[in-house]
User: What shape does this take?
Amino acid sequence: MKGKAHKFGDNVDTDMIIPARWLVTTDPAEIAAHAFEDVQAGWPETVAEGDILVAGNNFGCGSSREHAPIALKAAGIACVIAASFARIFYRNAFNIGLPVLESAEASADIDAGDVVEIDASTGAITNHTKGRSYRSTPLPPFMRELVSAGGLLAYLAKTRK
Amino acid sequence: MGMTITQKILAAHCGRDAVEPGEIVMCDVDLALGNDITAPIAIEEFHKAGGTRVWEPAKVALVPDHFAPNKDVRSAEQCKFMREFAREQDVGYYWEQSEMGIEHVLLPEEGCVAPGELVIGADSHTCTYGALGAFSTGVGSTDLAGVLLSGRIWLRVPETIRLVYRGERRRWVSGKDLILYTIGRIGVDGARYMAMEFAGPAIDALEMSDRFTMSNMAIEAGGKNGIFHVDDKTRAYLDAIPLARETRDREARVFESDADAAYARTVEFDVGEIEPQVALPFSPGNARGVSEIKDDIPIDQTVIGSCTNGRIEDLRTAAEVMKGKHIAKWTRCIILPGSHHVYRQALNEGLLGVFLDAGATISAPTCGPCIGGHMGVLAEGERCVSTTNRNFVGRMGHPKSEVYLASPATAAASALAGKVCGPDEVM
Assistant: This one.
């Protein structure tokens, strides 16, 4: 994964990511068209397929709406890097196949527009613009098992009692 | 090493004697919940994964409440989609029209949750049921689909932050003020990934409605769950529910934290120092005492209701403040009873008459304005004092509107004064 960074601050809530008035649909393309519209109108048009979203602490706090990671993924975001994530958003992103990486150093150092590359197998993050690299928190073994099973629902089907 | 109440409930649901914080465990679910916003995606995922029958229909609750009564054609379609699934699967809990309510007000009243149970809801405020000594937490739609398919969910055993409250509460200081103060002190990520355990003599003195309010807002500090110990007040609350499920031996599932349980952190509060709180835009962590707000902040609207403060005790408090008075000119006040039970009780107790006499409007139970859905959406530049739980940018309508979070007493007082103020200013 390699793309341009979009930078956000701390405590980005799911109402910012996708306002509740758009929760009347489950269509990813329609949801994506309204991502961040209350705080950065026109943001989806600035995203190229494969771009990376970089944020501070507690990204995705607030509501449990799965529409939030769906909006980011459908807008073209390939991966979210944050210093930390709110737990429901973290689960949701994982479940819908939007990679998320926790890295305080990457979050602090990457600026908007930097070209960032991610090695999904190691979690290593490279900032080509600045010529620096960062580490991210490794996934727990159980979550790697979920990935290799093909996601949560496939895992549950395989291990059903 | 002993265990916390949260560890014990998780251990009991994954067939283990003990679990440690940080472990990931696969747990059996006692109740799975979805609403008209989150269930449609969960149902689509359920079908995509080849699901035909939910694992145990009796343990599933589907509640149309966010945009219900239907606010427009698209929300009507989502409610219909969920209703048809509820019918086809014959789920244990589904309510419509005259039986409806906001999920987190309704489920406890209907006896759907008992101490020691594990509740998973596709709604972030599912943490509300911690007030009953249950482990309950919010997830997204795909996790709910997983529960509907398998009856199980993976959970990371959380560390626990212990919040101890001592002293005597001042007049008008409610559970809402305590939780706003707490979030202001520990921050909106102060309990991220953690269990919040509420304890101490000032907690023992709280009524159940205040405990529900506090558990409800655990998520606003990033908490996974917000839990209380079961005491005589919990038992009296459960005993008074005529419709409670009879499938469980309640006392066998009452868990207590061990004296030597490990806590990540303990935070102590003297509630005597806490005055009525207002959380300023745009974060629930922006709590201030009403006396710290020096400038007049004129308001356009107040909202009294929601899963946080839509219970009968909340309406009684608001009516006590508003009785015999009238809301300020150019100010609107919307009362949303949290459920049909609350609505009927408010009617029987004469509270609705008090609100009407004061110039307030009474809505059907719904989440409505809390998420900027309907029944009180704000225009550009408008301000609202609300008993709801979030004051994020655009939460109640226009991105340039503002929400001030407060208790029912403070919201009622603000409606009378036409500005942000505490109850002492109008009483």
User: Anything to note?
Assistant: The longest strand of chain B covers residues 160-166. The CA atoms of residues 119 and 136 of chain B lie 4 Å apart. The radius of gyration of chain B is 20 Å. Chain B touches chain A through 50 residues (CB under 8 Å).
